[in-house]
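PHLP1 phosphatase
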Amino acid sequence: RLFYNSSLRKLLAGHNMLGRLPDRLERTQVEVLDVQHNHLLELPSNLLLKADSLRFLNASANKLEMLPPATLSEETHSILQELYLTNNNLTDKCVPLLTGHPHLKILHMAYNRLQSFPASKMAKLEELEEIDISGNKLKAIPTTIMNCRRMHTVIAHSNCIEVFPEVMQLSEIKCVDLSCNELSEVTLPENLPPKLQELDLTGNPRLALDHKTLELLNNIRCFKIDQPSAGDASGAPAVWSHGYTEASGVKNKLCVAALSANNFCDNREALYGVFDGDRNVEVPYLLQCTMSDILAEELQKTKNEEEYMINTFIVMQRKLGTAGQKLGGSAVLCHIKHDPMDPGGCFTLTSANVGKCQTVLCRNGKPLPLSRCYVMSCEEELKRIKQHKAIITEDGKVNGVTDSTRILGYTFLHPSVVPRPHVQSITLTPQDEFFILGSKGLWDSLSMDEAVETVRNVPDALAAAKKLCTLAQSYGCNDSISAVVVQLNVTEDSFCCCELNGVPPPSPGIFPQSVNMVIKDRPTDALGMPSSSSGMASEISSEISTSEMSSEVGSTASDEPPQVAMNENSPAYPGEQRCMLHPVCLSNSFQRQLSSATFSSAFSDNGLDSDDEEPIEGVFTNGSRVEVEVDIHCSRAKEKQLLQVPVEASDEGIVISANEDEPGLPRKAEYSATGTIGRRRGNGSVAPHERSHNLIEVATDAPLRKTGGYFAAPAQPDPDDQFIIPPELEEEVKEIMKQHQEQQQQQQQQKQYPMDHLADYYDTPL
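Tokens:
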């Protein structure tokens, strides 16, 4: 009887259990009909014939297999402009019926069973402006899409498209999403469309772009393509992999941001985040750029999950500065970590959120919420706000600004609105399949149960994130949306892998577990490492043997020949392969275990804030110390040229020494170099002039001294840096030690006559 009411203009009957609509409909004045999320098998046969005023129809998330006709003749009176049919069972037979709606502007038919879209039918939809046909089995988009002169958005991800469509010929095109297809090449016109803002080509493994095409596409404001990855050398399964997507709202403003770092701080950690500014762009961008760095710094101070997460949000509140005074944003962070010091340890997932960005974990196929939204309906929050005498408006907002009582920014509402997050930690198990991070727009459109059920059978994380975003838009979301899906592969032996021949299950893109890692040479303009928020790792090379590493890295000048190192095939190794958590102790070989070969933009291991310092080429970080790779050359050939100006002794001069870490060798004399000897660096060392560069070569100047960190602490002997002499090398080592003693005596004499001979060894404060 509702449809017989001549005054009815809008009927919203979504999210119910309707099995059918009235079969017989007389002339009705309904303009908006929303029947999504029901159990409809079909729509009334005369619905589109009788509803002459219908402009909007959303029948998504039903079980439709066919559409009713819009006309019984060639002439049609339909004024339908928006049609949403996503997530049904529609087939190719429905496509011809669309031509009965010539005024159609928005068409969403994603995640149906379409295999083709006839070109003749597309040609008749001349007023079409936005089309979403993702998640079908289409192999091509008809070339007649060029007839749709007003088309500005084409979304066709997760299909089988092999040929790049003619969308670049459309003058009004703004957004093209062809991700997760089978494209092999891209055909572009000489000039790109002037309004094109976004082109997404990720998830096309066969796609190969030449340099000219890449150069042209890089002019697009938002151009996405897969980055080449070296892969993992061990071939072991990845513990986690992720995919993310973002979509702007109706006002064409992207007010959300996502953060993904597969390798965070070290090889066994990851960080993901989603930030939502509601209607502002500034706050999400600041959170995306800054929050990972703050978290890395807080991890240096405490290992307690709740403490470092709360501190991260509080510090972030302060760093927002003026942008956070009148603007605010929701945020959710998920940190995966593994304690390498605990052989029986597990992966821990810690989630922290403020506002309406939330996380849900899929465990045994069921959703497990890890977040909480603090709004006025929470009794404890309502009580706290009343104590601060804040004004609560009728729509449930604090001073009419925000309905979230815990959110970043909005400092003018303090102390009613605070940035303290809800923190929850959980130990990951083999029953954990994936977790989802989403912005407010996603969770307003999809329940957590539906989101988990929707992507559980999607094997690819990127395709899963795309599907969530597409469904939310088809279900009526007009806000910006961001979704991150992280798929998990936690096995019982992820923590102790002695049974896997010592090869630990890697996270995506982590370094091969080896002691012989060297940072590759980089051009001068490539010294800056990528930000930790980008999730990119430094290139490393494993072309140097363990013996070369022990002799070239982490030691000052020494005349000792490198010790003979045992390789994996040596009989000195036991037959049993062990993992990095249960290493084999070798009593007859020298090893130096490097814990990291990267410099994070968040907080480098040597205590320097990398926002102020450039990473150093040739410098290795090993937790509590810094090791510098240098080349030592004989200096006797240049003695006479260098020794032209008298030198005065000083405590801040060059330290002439053998390896400091060797326990039996005393510290040598110290000198100050002035005049033509060299110039003093900012870190206290002395750099010789160009003609004396053969003394010691360093890739770049050492970092400046700072309060705190490694450079403020006294040098401590490292227990790993000791020589264990095999029996067969005792005689040779004794001879070497004898030579050292003779050199010590000579250098002691040089203290009295410093200008007679130039020292062979230089040890800078670094």
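The CA atoms of residues 248 and 479 lie 7 Å apart.
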